Amino acid sequence: MRRSALFRNFAPLQILLVAVAACVPLLLLGSNWLLQREFDENRALRNATSATFETRYTLEQLLKLHLDLETAERGFIISRNAAFLAPYNEAEGRISAVLEQLGSTRELKEEEPLYRRLVVESRNKRAFAGQMVTLIKEGRDDEARRAVASGQGKLFMDRIRALVAQIDTLRQEQLRARLEASERDSRHLRRTTIGLHTAVLFLLFIAALLGMRINSARTVALSRMRESNERQSAIFDSADDGMMLLDASGRIRSLNPAVTKMFGYAEDDMRGRAVGMLFKEAPREEDVAAFLRTLALDPTRSRLRHVREFEGETSAGTHFPVEVALSTVPGETQRSFLAVIRDITKRKQVEQMKSEFVSVVSHELRTPLTSIAGSLGLLAGGAAGELPERARKLIGIAQANSARLVRLINDILDIEKIEAGKMTFDIKPVPLASLLEQCAQGNAGFAAEYGVQIVVEPVAAGVAVMADEDRLIQVITNLLSNAIKFSPEGEAVRITVVPGELAHRISVAGLGPGIPDPFRSRIFQKFAQADASDTRQKGGTGLGLSIVAEIVSRLKGEVSFDSVAGEGATFHVDLPAAPKQ
To answer: Which residues make Cβ contacts (< 8 Å) with residue 200, sequence separation at least 6?
Structure first.
């Protein structure tokens, strides 16, 4: 109780401290963002100032070039000295480039019409000057002087000056507005930054107070944690089962004394080595690492203990059966896995004794039961003469129950053969169309007893699976028997095949009560029954689906089912596709 109360009081303080600690960097980030924005604004202001001065310089250049053009033109008109044409041609050649440079730096919409007019007036001025030079070269001096005296060239030049002045004024006004806006933003930034820094200082003060309160609680929690770790270490070291911590590559990080006792190695000889050293058939390190990686990435699987059986190998080379349970270790910064190893030699011996006992009893019972069932069948068929009605009913009951016992014994023997590895499988391509038709015909009489039909949906030509034909017939027969017994009278059990690229799916669907949710996880276990009374009424042994699962597994396939309570069930058998001929 005291410990629970401690953590209940400790948790809100931690949450509050985390909240305060989270707010501090957010405020600092906000302050940093404001400062960065100020830096960006200053940079943009500097660029704008530089662009304005560059534009003013370009405008001065443009105006000077037009003045040089006009001066050279008039000097040539007055003196007819060809030396004036050199500055004239230079100015004429540079004006277009300067105009293009000025056009590339336009920023304001108001500049666009002024710039277009400036281009037109510059073109007019240069055309007029070119015309005057041409007249002088042709000896039409009087005509050139009269044109100059008309003031047309001066008018063009005055317009150029006015347009240059307007563009320059616009740029200066724009720069002045940006300077004023920047000053306002700077004042606002200073106030906001001071507020943020004040809030940060306040939060740091609160965090310090919380830290002082948490420190004492943390000291107690760490003390309790040390006690818990010591208890866990004691359990780890004293456990009868071997326990090992593995890293992500499957190498042994730590182990308890039970492992060294079980396998006969010294602890130092095992630490840091691959776990495969403990098994007769050691898996490859890359396969172990891949499996552990898959286990760690799957949150649904990582919470479970994965149990498998292996053949262990001691340091002396002797072998014994072991069961390995593997699970992830939560809370580790470096991914770790707990492997629990249990010596199951005694359990295997008990299972072997049980198996031999069941096998002997089953074999000893099957022969007399078969004989009894046959004799009862002969009696029911009138081999000993006509029987009274009451005797005939009793014989029929006895015959049905003896037949049921024979089926149960056969199923038990099949399970024992499969688990002992004594059931042989002749794997070869098996065409599904003919096999399914054979199964339907073989179970037609049984279906008729329940008033149920068997419908085989058309199977595509050439669809075949890799399987043992007799065992596959046994699988389909068991599924059909199940579906027939639980389907309502007048309904149909359907067999369908869905071909795939690597595997083909055989589905047996029947209507009926379906499979209850609590029963689904153990439906393929031996003697599993959803409703024992109903199963006895239907004549089931509880081994049929277990046999199906075992056979399909050894055929390298998978068995699954879909079911909705009250709407029946569909069982699926996925088997490897046979190579196409």
So the answer is: 24, 27, 28, 31
